[in-house]
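Aim 2 progress update. The chain analyzed this quarter is reproduced below.
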Amino acid sequence: MLRSTIISSLLCCVLIAAAHAESGSAGSEAQLVKSLQAINDSHLDIALSEVNSLLQANPKFKLAQLVKGDLLMARAGAIDNFGSAPNAPHDEIEDLREEARVRLHRVLSQTDQKLKPRFLWQMDAGQKYALVVDTSRSTLYVYENVNGEPRYVTDFYITIGKLGTDKISEGDQRTPIGVYFIKAELPRGKLADFYGRGAYTLSYPNEWDRKNNRTGSGIWLHGTPSDTYSRPPRASNGCVVLANEDLGRLVPFLKAGITPVIIANQMSWSNEQDQNGRAELLGSVEQWRKDWSSLDTGAYLKHYAPTFSNDSMDYAAWARQKQLVNSAKSWIKVSLSNVSLFTYPEQPDLVIVNFEQDYSSNNLSNRMKKRQYWMKQNNTWKIIYEGAS
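Predicted structure tokens:
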């Protein structure tokens, strides 16, 4: 009997896996899991039938090819473990074993689709969808904006950097953790085959990355080469990579300059404390707007942390500029619309606030998209960054 250690360790969950494979998983992954389950139950003919069907649709699925090879060798009694054929490349087999483990775990540990990620405190009306990447589960989740609240749509298996997460510098082969946005779709005709059916640039490094001296660029969301169905969980140079067929399914949810992409080490779910925090922060943003509109520069500046800085000024320079500008005003009106709030992974009490600002005064009027980073310090929300978005 062929029994993989990655399957036997999860034997108690086989029936759960079968139910999820029917209802929620992508077709190819569900078929693969059914084949692995059949192997675990010593139903090798059923397993071979499932994997043959899978390979007819996806002949470049290396993991499925490995499973088929094992099954054929098992019939001859020449193998007793997953991927242990003689002379098999050790590193490649280990990668495929890890992919099998992750894919099986994704199906076995499906989360309650009614849960809401704590990172998506509020989406604005223009953000129809948001993406959340849980790197610990090699999974990209898609959420739809329903009256500002996230609702689960689907999820996909993904690949991240060879050395994991927490990108710090150029070429470190790590995937960044943070709140980013789709910047642009790259012209497919100008892409190398390595990037598959398409590529979308992400806004790394963002303002928080630059504030923390994180460097590098070229973090994309892209597909796989034409001769590869999928890649192991950790195989990219830092990008988030999907199978080409999955990227095709994802494209309708992507909008350049609009769609947020939150990359986290682990998914975290919203609770009552988040709801309270959101309400409190929205109150602070509204008070900031009122204080600015009232021309009470002292009250307005109290919303900024001593550690505040933007791309050109620290707090002291910012305060001097605002005092000078406001001294020339006889009245100010400020209104905010399309407000969104995203909590920052791995950074307690840090929230990115985006909005459209409509500003008018006795000598100037403008409208702009703005981004602020608010951090809770001594139990009070303060602005640590502000700039155009």
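Confidence is low (pLDDT under 50) at residues 1-25. The chain has three domains: 5-108, 120-264, 272-388. These observations will guide the mutagenesis experiments scheduled for the next reporting period.
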